[in-house]
Automatic annotation (TrEMBL):
Pfam families documented for this protein: HATPase_c (PF02518), HisKA_3 (PF07730)
SUPFAM superfamilies named among the record's database cross-references: ATPase domain of HSP90 chaperone/DNA topoisomerase II/histidine kinase (SSF55874)
Gene3D superfamilies assigned: 1.20.5.1930, Histidine kinase-like ATPase, C-terminal domain
Ranges for domain Signal transduction histidine kinase subgroup 3 dimerisation and phosphoacceptor: 175-239
Reactions mediated catalytically: ATP + protein L-histidine = ADP + protein N-phospho-L-histidine
Domain Histidine kinase/HSP90-like ATPase stretches: 279-324
EC main group: transferase
The keyword Transferase is annotated on this UniProt entry: yes
EC assignment: 2.7.13.3
Gene Ontology MF annotations: phosphorelay sensor kinase activity; protein dimerization activity
Name under which the protein is recorded: histidine kinase
InterPro entries: HATPase_C_sf (IPR036890), HATPase_dom (IPR003594), Sensor_HK_TwoCompSys (IPR050482), Sig_transdc_His_kin_sub3_dim/P (IPR011712)
Amino acid sequence: MFRPFQKNYILYYLALIFLAYPIGGVIWFGYPLWTLALTSLFTISYLALIHINNQFHKTIFCLWFNSLAYVVYMSCFYDGAFMWFFFFHSNLLIWRFRDKIKSYRAISFLLALGSVVIYGQILSTDIISRLMVTVVPIFILFMSYSQYSIRKEDDMKSEIYKQNETINLLAAENERNRIGRDLHDTLGHTFAMMTLKTELALKQLDKENLVAVQKELEELNQISRKSMKDVRQLINNLKYRTVGEELDNIRDMFSLSDIELQVQNTVNTDHLSPVIQSSINMILRELTTNIIKHAKAKHCQICLQMAEAITIEVTDDGQGFSNMTGDELHSIKERLQLVKGKVEILSSANPTKIRVSLEEGELS
């Protein structure tokens, strides 16, 4: 029935220190002794709302309205300062139940607060009381909205983190599958041929046909050498992709992220040196990863051109750079030092447009 204890519950418990006010009211301000029973019921309801499992909807409903009724009653008939107790409900709404504004708890919270304000304005006889009845609820609503905004931002960050985690897992899975296919295509056929040649050599050896044995062993040697060459090539391919392969991978990642991508490539990348291709790949990977993870974009365009230098332009309709510090894209700037390139932010937002130039775009 109850949820296990969590460390963040301590923050809910700290609010209980304010129960000293109704208890002190009985001792020093003449509150009736029976209000201690109401305070006890409120405390039990509050603690139960913290710990009870969410599937007990009816119980939560009763506990919620019981605690609200206590604050409304004490605020209207004993002391308007009890309005501060609405913070108990504000914290539960935002952090415990993580309710939206249209939930019954949020609506009842606003109605209860509004009823106390109206009642207080009607009965208040001096300007100080009227001012308190106005200012305190405004402060409560302001703080509640601020906390709600913080929580909403946390939820969005958490959702983005989960999406990025999924994308990274899919990318890693695709890479593993690609390596597996390459190994199978490269080595599977080779080992089958080597096994066949070995069996033929053994059969010819049984027949003492040494010429045939020598022929099979020579072919086996050639297959072995070719296999070693293929494995070296495979290892080199794992170290870096061609630009075309990188663009294909980017298309897959954008498809998974529901971002529409347009690619315009007029550069004959097959003739570029491995260093230049590796640099282009890193730049494209860095820019597109930032778009997927941070930009919240719906459309993106990548343009590769070559004149005196290779130019990469990446444009997106995301949120852009909020504050320009001069330290943006530092990893790309460091990489470009190897190829005498430069990066420019042509537009920081609406749309975001970045241009990268590689001055040493020589052919291999």
